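In the current project phase, we have settled on a layout for protein records. A sample record is reproduced below.
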Amino acid sequence: MQKLFYLLFDSAEADGTKLREALCGVAVPAMREAGAMEITVFGADADVAEGSPIRQVDPPIRAMVSFWLEDAGDRGSAEAALAGHVQGLAGYLVCESRPMVHEMPKGERTPGMKQISCITKRADLSQEEYIRIWHGDHRQVAIDTQSTFGYVRNEIFRALTPGAPDRWDAFVEESFPMGALTDQEIFYDAKTHEEYETNFKIMMDSCGRFLDHSAIEVTFFSEYYMG
């Protein structure tokens, strides 16, 4: 079994809710027919429209889809089911780990909102040191300083589609309460502004130890686990 992760690119003005509905209602059944399992659709829809994404690619990321196949080499039909709904896509083979497992009701919107960050390792770090920091003490820092209730790492093994951006090393899924979309004190699990400032600094300092912030891409989504 292999996990595939797709970024779907479309105009910033495109209707994110219609795209998410098309993916769940049209693409997902076709993907299942093609052998895809454990499909999750992440849509930048109306429910998360108040978020402020960090965009560096054009056209921007408007949705993401993850799924599992027995063999990534047999992805053609599932990939085609996604491609017809957007301007472009980039697919990757990833290695998944779940430091925080959250409940995902099948076929429904997962409570809260999902932040997915496309992250890049600092160039001056070895792969071993990068993993040591990220999977080691930073894991607890993220849990302690944010209102995160779900955390999934998708480390990129290799790109699957021609021209897929090679600037990133992983896609990080973090689940937050809906209020965190627009309120930084909720995002950083703070009861006071002073606590927010403290947690923000701790988190940014920790991220700075292993990430290249100049390459980061951050998008907010509604999560639909389709099974």
